[in-house]
Amino acid sequence: MLNHAEASEKFIEDAERTTWHDETLWFVRSKRDKVSKLLPEWEALREQASLIKDHTLANLGQYLIEFESNAQKNGIKVHWAKDAQEHNEIVHSIISKHGGKALVKSKSMLTEECHLNEFLTKKGVEVVDTDLGERIVQFRNEVPSHIVLPAIHLKKEDVGETFHEFLGTPKGNKDPQFLTEAARQHLRGYFLGANVAITGVNFAVAETGEFVVCTNEGNADMGAHLAKVHIACMGIEKMIPKRKDLGVFLRLLARSATGQLITTYSSHFAKPRKGQEMHIILVDNGRTRQLARDEFRNSLKCIRCAACFNTCPVYRRSGGHSYHQPVAGPIGSILAPNFDKSANVDLPFASTLCGSCSNVCPVKINIHEQLWFWRQDLMKDGLAPLGKSLSMKGMAFMFSNPTIFKMAGYMGRLVMRFAPFIVNNSFNPWFKQREMPEAPKESFQSWYKNRK
Amino acid sequence: MSSRSEILGAIQALEKREIHHPGDFKSYKATQDLVGDFKNSLSIVGAICIEAENKQKAEARLSEIYPDLLRYTSHDVVTNGLELEAVDVLEIDGLFGVAENGAIWLSDQFLPNRVAPFICQHLVIYVAKSEIVATLHEAYERLDGHYADFALFLSGPSKTADIEQSLVIGAHGARSLTIILT
């Protein structure tokens, strides 16, 4: 597997596409800025959302029990899964009872995290992703590169090619309207025939035992209301205490994600319809471990809006696949080491620590600080690459020793002025796609001392 | 040990932290023009808005917008949602609208079937001008104590921008949404 820097290098080989990716995501970020500034209470809403999540995480056990009991009263079957494997097995056991061979699934980052599609495919069940972007990447045997815009790494020509291959659309047709219509017709057949529908959960309300699913396409509802069985999969951190709290989160979610006022559909599922079975799976998969860590607990406040992706200067120029995780971007980089430190050691370093992610986060997660905390944690565990830990040790030695620091500065200036090839070569990663700066003749310290 | 007790046990083993719920949120300023703001939001989310005192007056405009299409107006329960697949235009009643985002609250008590507003090709919703609230906070205030088995906020026709960020109206749900303000 390529690490983040290696995968990014591949991504930016196509400069034109990289620029398009960068500018398109920045456009989404600008739309978020525009609508958020129309609300004078925007900052107060963020604060409120953050406080509600603080409170919920401090009382998570109690709210999970309250939710379970109310959901059961509503006629929903509640399951608990400690990890991805158990979650997948629960889903499979429900499907097996109903003899389904194909199921429709709307967007759920949790099922991506658990690799549910792979698991079910191996068991002979066909999973049909019904979000347009997810269907596109599923055809291409790829994974989503963005949690809200799954196919943002692709151009319409790519989608046209893919649909030509899988849906028989005319070769060369790349009109988004036409291609979307083709997907609508193709997926309608699956909606009308599916026995089982899987959806994610945006919010689960402890007070009422209901859960809310937000989409723009209407695919979650088309699946859930037609299928005999509805399975909703959620991480335990999706809990909120009261129904009135939904007002706060629904005002923030779409505005932060795409600059919309609200998603087209915000569906509140409380009870199964007559003759339908409704299941909800509460999944831990490392969340209680994160809850126990003071410095990383806040990451569990995330409502998956992806505002931090769209603003991140690194994500915009490296693409979602460079993060080799179902949730990419800044938030993914602080969630991933909790699953596997050594496999994701590169991700907390895939950031400039500029802090833009924390500034746009609707629930005020201190993302950039957590990236920095993870760097320290990973270095302490000795997981950082040898080069990085050696250079850090070297720098620590140099910066704590004034004489050596002065000497190093002098040598550096000398080298850059008289033998620039020593730094301007392909062995120096800082030289890639950059010109090294012209070295000043003297240091700031000597200029300060000698100034008249 | 069951996974339930394992998960709850892991949470309960953590040090107790006293953090209070911040209480209900109040929006800063109430809008002066609920209907005007609602209409503005409807145009942003891509819905068509018609003002008409009653259903008869709306009729003429509706047959202009949806000529030669089968319009389904019955509120009778349809047990099998699949039967609604052939509906071109579905007309339903919304309970109230939200000025800040053009969302309309639909409850399954007033729908032929839960899938009805999604499976039809075009959707028409009647909302009374007197039934518009300013923000989602007022909306949930109003819903306090009213529970539906299934309900939703619906704002605009179904849409996607998953192909190169080009907005396309009519993803899986209704291809158009017309709101009749009575």
Write up this protein.
The complex is a heterodimer of chains A (452) and B (182). With 452 residues, chain A is α/β, with parallel strands linked by helices. Chain A has three domains: 124 residues, no CATH class; 184 residues, NagB/RpiA/CoA transferase-like (Rossmann fold, 3-Layer(aba) Sandwich); 50 residues, no CATH class. Helices cover 52% and strands 10% of the residues of chain A. In chain A, the strands form two sheets. In chain A, strands 1-10-7-4-2-3 form a six-stranded parallel beta sheet, with helices on both faces. A four-stranded mixed beta sheet of chain A has the order 8-5-6-9, sandwiched between helices. The mean pLDDT of chain A is 95. Chain B is of the alpha/beta class. Helices cover 24% and strands 23% of the residues of chain B. Chain B has five helices and eleven strands; from the N terminus they run ααβαββββαββαββββ. In chain B, the strands form three sheets. A five-stranded parallel beta sheet of chain B has the order 1-11-6-3-2, sandwiched between helices. In chain B, strands 7-4-5-8 form a four-stranded mixed beta sheet. The radius of gyration of chain B is 20 Å and the shape is globular. Strand 9 of chain A pairs antiparallel with strand 8 of chain B.
